Amino acid sequence: MSALLPPARRVWWKEPLDRVELAWILIAFAWSAILFFMMPYWHVFGKQNLSNEAYRISAEEFTKRTQTMVDKYTVRTETDEKIPVVHPPEGSDVYLIARLWQWWPLLELENGKSYRLHLSALDYQHGFSLQPSNINLQVVPGYEMVITVTPNQAGSYSIVCNEYCGIGHHKMVSRLYVK
Amino acid sequence: MNDSRNFRIDTPTGLQYHRDAELLIKANAFFGVVFLLIGGVLALLVSLTRWPSVHLLPADWFYLTLTAHGLDMLVFWIIFFEIAVLYFCSSTLLRCRLATPRIAWLGFALMLIGAVTTNVAIFRGDSSVMMTSYVPMGAHPSFYLGLILFAVGALIGCFVFLGTLVVAKNDKTYEGSLPLVTFGALTASIIAIFTIASGAIILIPTFLWSIGYIHQIDPLMYRTIWWAFGHSSQQINVAAHVSVWYAIAAIVFGAKPMSEKVSRTAFLLYIAFLQLASAHHLLSDPGLSSEWKIFNTSYFMYFAVLASMVHGLTVPGAIEVAQRKKGYTKGLYEWLRRAPWSNPVFSGMFISLIGFGFLGGISGVMMGTEQLNMIIHNTIYVPGHFHATVVIGTTLAFMSLTYFLIPSLFRREVWLPGVAKWQPYVFGFGMYAFALVMMGAGTLGVPRRHWDMSFAGTALPHEFPGSAYLMMGLVGISGVLAVIGGGMYILVTVGSLLFGRKVESSTFAQKGTPIPRAPVAATIGGHHGGAGFAAPGTFTLAIVFLVAFVLYYFINWKYLSTVWGIS
Amino acid sequence: MSQNETTDADDEPIPVMQQILDNPFLLLFIGITVPTVFYIVWGVMEIVTIPVAK
Ligand code: HEM
Ligand SMILES: [Cu+2]
Ligand SMILES: [Cu+2]
């Protein structure tokens, strides 16, 4: 039972390694280096990276900016609640509010064009989950995350909330259209 | 306290239990199992609710139950049992008295009071905030207070462990270095100290906020420090269950670590780097730079993954060496085929090891990659991953250890050995299936902590594909299977305490006898100079693991490259 | 296989790495400092320096 007992020799540091161990350590080390390398590599050559552009912002300020966008670019409303559908121009700043228990407004983007998407929450934390692509981001109140998104397929997407945000969490779902 | 029954020597195993330590180990392990029982009942309710065609609980009860399941399992069951493991690995393995038993009891009392307080807060219904209790969503103040008391109690337990190491050293109950298993426990306790201190640092202000004394808690700051607690506590588990694997390999096979140097260095890598991985949970958060994310999420260049891959080789490798010495040398795998598969101490440990590596380890590295995190963050893939680590890895390892402790510590024969024999298979394979289908559902986008994936009653519902419903149905079925396996464990352990035949094979002594060093003859013979290839079977298994790892990892990059451009 | 295995030479110095691994309190220090500096302090510094939206 010697893993339960003190090592046999007073000096165990100098005991030689078996080749099985040595070989595996080298393989595992090389693999760890590859795992590490992949992240910076993707920052340079990959097309899916978070920009890490972020700001502190109050709920009022974020709401105001969103409202300005909605006033400018609304093309129609949907659902009984008359949620505005916003069709912003290419390259513009697009705001999406997460709040109990709604994403607001609805967005309509164009395929292959890029937009600066601003995400923030007004109350609790929420989870931005774009389906069926399965892109998932944390939305934190008081902070604004800015990323440039470029849709690559037309269609109707859903935005699900996947951070628990209280009793209406499972009702927090919305649409995003790509033309 | 100088009486002649201070130490009990368990004849079959030769273990020497200091009386105070023995009682504390029993008490901590017992209450761990109580919380496992509670958590298990809740697991059943949660699983039956996430099974779409059953959808058992109403929404409020689902969220309440899930909050309680998370805390009762991940915090209360695991940490109670871990404190028991710490006392066992110090006082019992080192054959010395436990340092400051009264303070250890104080720690135990705080833990128990804390765990009960938090449970009461949850079941009153106003604290369904999930175990993460992300601010600004608030729970009842007693929810945080209970957690703080529990944390302080557990911290006391860690210091009693360290104190006991000092006692052993001063009383010279061992010579040279600590046994490897105790060293692993030391690793766990060091990680625990950082973890629990972080928990206290964030939960104390949150408690003050909940009673209105502090105005605001920054949600991003909260997330960062909370995860130093929430994730590192998983790293305590890793260090603890790896130690248990080594212990079981030694108990069942008399296996000796292939190399003290390698195994201990791997533990050192855990001590230094494992806790950085708390960043796994913040990879898709605003405001933290990619440099911080990459450095931390990779445990500084994946050194802790390297360490886990090493342990994953050396534990079965040590078993292989021991078995080959006994003459099971045919082919690559005779040693494994002829292992005692009907002994739950071994089968549980081996199922734990394989599941932890293949399911938990590979998925964990994938999720913990900065960019790849985006395609699974907060989906049910995440609980799929950690049920593979903390249930298959930790819980099952602890269960296997219990089968050894029942006769040796509780002095009872295992009741219903037939049930015990099958328990690791039912629980383990139930959990393998459960973790896999959860990961499958997460890949299809199903959110975690979510009561209704059909979004009934919403104006713009999302329609998940039929395959996602199928996966969630299988989550329900395999969850029930795993709960049955968990129930078998409770039946056997509690049954053994109540109805098991007494084991009368102890002698008593006033003082423990010092432990000898491991016999030198037990070292890997004949391979000096590193020329041997002592465990070829294990090596081939490790290569299979590596291939699975590489393929799965790059498949995910491939998928990532097909989604929207994000920059 | 050798003769010197039954007894170690008691005067052989303990290698530094072994001494480190045999020192629980040094390990405790490492285990607290590394994550505190790289994860907590660095992380908190990044959070407090997030600019206010223009
Ligand atoms: C009997 C076996 C078990 C089953 C069937 C089971 C089932 C589940 C299910 C269905 C969920 C909900 C996932 C979701 O909706 O997000 C869950 C969550 C969870 N489980 Fe288990 N579980 C079991 C054992 C355990 C054990 C032993 C642990 C810890 C040691 C554990 C820790 C957790 C945690 C931490 C969560 C997440 C709670 C949260 O999201 O806040 N489970 N489990
Ligand atoms: Cu939400
Ligand atoms: Cu939500």
Number of strands of chain A: 12
**What is the total number of structural domains of chain B?**
1
Biggest β-sheet strands, sense, barrel of chain B: 3 strands, antiparallel
The stretches of 5 or more residues of chain A where confidence is low (pLDDT under 50) are none
Order of helix and strand elements from N to C terminus of chain B: EEHHHHHHHHHHHHHHHEHE
Chain-averaged pLDDT of chain B: 94
Number of helices of chain B: 16
Radius of gyration of chain A: 24 Å
Name the strands of the widest sheet of chain B in spatial order. Answer: 2-1-3
Unreliable residue stretches of chain B: 522-530
Any idea of the CATH topology of chain B? Cytochrome C Oxidase, Chain A
The biggest sheet of chain A, with number of strands, parallel, antiparallel or mixed sense and barrel status, is: 7 strands, mixed
CATH class category label of chain B: Mainly Alpha
CATH-level-4 superfamily name of chain B:
Cytochrome c oxidase-like, subunit I domain
The level of helicity of chain B is: 55-70%
- How far the N terminus sits from the C terminus of chain A, by CA atoms, comes to 68 Å
Structure description:
The complex is a heterotrimer of chains A (179), B (567) and C (54). Chain A has two domains: 1-49, no CATH class; 54-178, Immunoglobulin-like, CATH 2.60.40.420. In chain A, 23% of the residues lie in helices and 37% in strands. Chain A has helices at 19-45, 59-73, and strands spanning 53-56, 74-78, 83-86, 93-99, 102-104, 106-109, 115-121, 126-131, 135-139, 143-150, 155-161, 173-178. Chain A is elongated and about 80 Å long. Chain B has 567 residues and is an all-alpha fold. Chain B has a single domain (7-454, 462-563), classed as Cytochrome C Oxidase, Chain A. Chain B is built from 16 helices and four strands. Chain B has helices at residues 19-50, 59-94, 101-124, 141-170, 180-210, 219-230, 232-253, 260-273, 290-297, 299-325, 334-337, 344-367, 381-408, 417-443, 466-499, 536-560, and strands at 7-10, 15-18, 506-509, 565-566. With 54 residues, chain C is mostly helical. Chain C is built from two helices and no strands. The radius of gyration of chain C is 22 Å and the shape is rod-shaped. The chains are: A alpha+beta (179), B mainly alpha (567), C mainly alpha (54). At the A-B interface, helix 1, strand 8, strand 9, strand 10 and strand 11 of A face helix 2, helix 6, helix 7, helix 8 and helix 10 of B. Strand 10 of chain A pairs antiparallel with strand 4 of chain B, so a sheet runs across the interface.
